[in-house]
Design goal:
about 500 residues, seven-stranded mixed β-sheet, about 25% strand
């Protein structure tokens, strides 16, 4: 008797690693695989990945996850993909080879180009894209590659090259590559390029002209939940790829934040707050990004406000790899809790400027308040607390933009397993912090989107019923202490500014 395909496999292609997770109908992960890829820093402010290493890892973890779940290909109903957003790959359509290393979302090499485009009216692109003009997004990275790689711009105009964020790169290769690979992206990833119009959900001729990017380079924009194509070759040959969501939107979907006012905060390499605003985009006046939450098939798009923090988990990696004060990332919690507080030290990790709500490219990393009393434990604690303070900043922006304050904060991502950090987050926000039973919500969201497209789940209400609370933290400090700490944090922010002329 043939096996009923009741499981969904999700590829989570992140900034530091690629994971594959098999999810059953109850929303429970039953198998996984994971491989890290190199972080390449050719110059100060430059961050690159090897797109081919990412592709090899993605193929490998698919097999790992299937084996770990002890399932055959016949049990997999569909594959969903979620990915690091904004990271830019340009490749040769005839060979499938990237013409330059992937330029990562954190990269700031294009600041001069952004400044030139911003001359005169820096907010003109925001009116159609919902995004501030910043190196964070894909457009300036694409333009830089076309300007830098010999012959690239002419080849792009001739239709010989393709651009994609890593979702497009993986889908194109998994569905056949040069032999008929499908060149698509979804609305959530397209909304992070500075090239898509929020109203039309299509590439904007005006925006393409601003950056001198030919339309033929770009993928087709599709919904977040539909069958795009089928895997060609390998252990999952013939399985449909049926869901694509940028990583933060996927985490929001995995947290069942489907309706207006529902939100989540993901603590990963960076930290990202997304608040669903429904079917109408809300223009932020407080430094947030207006973006897409999801679109299911031919249904209406759902929009969101996002607060993007550049450095969160990557600060712990920096403590490990650059300072050597911890041997593994997991040690940071023990070191930080070995002292009662940060010793009045504050750490602003503006390694590539400050993102939301400040959008200050001139800021740089700053530690203030050090004394002879300060130890590596105080620095570790200040580093963890920096993530909580940055989260307060973006939630304060939501309070200013939205009609109603957040009643609680749903959290996920790698740093959410740090109980000390979650308690401090509740303390500094003054609202409860709630962690779900399954914290792999990014992969879960991609699985849900794919499963909806092929009938594994029937609708959003069925998915909402799968969410389960895992842990909760209530605020435990006084309002006066909260205000004192926040005032000092904002003094530290002030001292991080104007470092780059």
């Amino acid at each position: 008797m043939p096996v009923q395909p009741s499981h969904v496999l999700a590829i989570d292609q992140g900034t530091t690693s690629t994971r594959a997770i098999v999810v059953d109908r109850s929303g429970t992960p039953v198998g996984s695989g994971q491989l890290e890829h190199r972080q390449i820093f050719p110059e100060a402010g430059w961050v690159e990945h090897d797109a081919h290493e990412i592709l090899r890892n993605a193929r490998a973890v698919l097999g790992q996850a299937l084996g770990d779940a002890h399932l055959s290909r016949e049990a997999i109903a569909a594959i969903g993909i979620t990915n690091q957003r904004e990271t830019t790959v340009v490749w040769d359509r005839s060979t499938g080879r990237a013409i330059h290393p992937a330029i990562v979302w954190q990269d700031t090499r294009t600041q001069d180009l952004v400044d030139r485009v911003a001359a005169g009216d820096p907010d003109r692109l925001r009116r159609s894209t919902g995004l501030p003009l910043a190196t964070y997004f894909s457009a300036s990275k694409i333009a830089w590659i076309l300007d830098t790689v010999p012959g690239a711009r002419d080849r792009a105009r001739a239709g010989e090259l393709a651009f994609g964020t890593t979702d497009s790169w993986l889908v194109w290769h998994l569905t056949g590559g040069p032999a008929g690979g499908v060149h698509v992206t979804d609305v959530t990833n397209a909304s992070r390029t500075l090239l898509m119009d929020l109203a039309t959900l299509d590439w904007s001729s005006e925006l393409l002209a601003h950056w001198d990017i030919p339309r033929s380079l770009l993928p087709e924009i599709r919904s977040s939940s539909e069958v795009y194509g089928h895997v060609v070759g390998g252990p999952l040959d013939g399985v449909p790829i049926a869901g694509i969501l940028g990583d933060q939107q996927a985490a929001t979907f995995g947290q069942s934040a489907f309706g207006p006012g529902e939100s989540k905060q993901t603590y990963g390499t960076g930290a990202f707050l997304i608040v669903n605003t429904g079917t109408t985009p809300v223009r932020s006046t407080a430094g947030l990004i207006t973006t897409l939450a999801y679109r299911l098939g031919t249904g209406p798009a759902s929009y969101a406000l996002e607060g993007s923090v550049a450095v969160a988990g990557s600060l712990v990696q920096w403590l490990r790899d650059s300072l050597g004060i911890i041997r593994t990332s997991a040690e940071v919690e023990e070191l930080a809790t070995s002292v009662e507080d940060s010793g009045d030290a504050y750490f602003v990790p503006a390694f590539s400027g400050l993102y939301a709500p400040y959008w200050r490219a001139d800021a740089r990393g700053t530690i203030v308040g050090l004394t002879r009393f300060s130890t590596k434990a105080h620095i570790a604690r200040a580093a963890l607390e920096a993530t909580a303070f940055q989260t307060w900043d973006v939630i304060d922006a939501v309070r200013r933009d939205a009609a109603a304050p957040l009643a609680e904060l749903r959290v996920d991502g790698g740093m959410s397993v740090n109980d000390r950090l979650m308690q401090f987050q509740a303390d500094i926000l003054g609202i409860p912090v709630v962690r779900p039973a399954v914290i792999e919500t990014t992969a879960l969201g991609a699985a849900y989107a794919a499963g909806l497209a092929v009938g594994v789940w029937s609708d959003l209400e069925e998915l909402r019923g799968l969410w389960r609370e895992g842990a909760r933290w209530e605020p435990g400090i006084s309002a006066d202490e909260r205000s004192r700490r926040l005032a000092r944090w904002h003094r530290a922010i002030d001292r991080s500014l104007d470092w780059v002329e």
